[in-house]
Amino acid sequence: MTNLDMNAISNSQWSSVNTDGTDTWNSRDIVISNWTNTSGGDCITVRSNSTNIYVSNIVCYESGVMVISSLCNPALTLNLVDNVVFENISLTHSSNAAWMKTYLDQGYVRNATFRNINFNDIDQPVYVSSCIDSY
Q1: Given CA atoms 27, 57, 111, 81 in this order, what sign does their dihedral have?
Q2: Entry pTM
Q3: pLDDT classification of 75: cutoffs 50, 70, 90
């Protein structure tokens, strides 16, 4: 997925929320590059059971940016994220730069790389938290 310019903001009195740029889930061998995203959700989210994900040359505004999220499939299901690279990322006026959201469950994140990240007006450059939504 390359060369995308996405703008998901509200022109009304209500702000846009949960308008993610893209989410992987049960995915492998994905390349995301040359994107500009303005949204009220996460810019790029790598979710449960995603492997070999490469994200590069991304510009994000107004969002949670590089997210590894929702490692929370049903009980007794292994949840994993493996071999993820985020590089050459620019972000402005965003909540979190590198954000990991997870429930207590079985699984792991392995080989996650965040490289060459430039940011301005960020609440938290690195943030680890529990998931903010439920399934």
Answers
A1: negative
A2: 0.83
A3: low
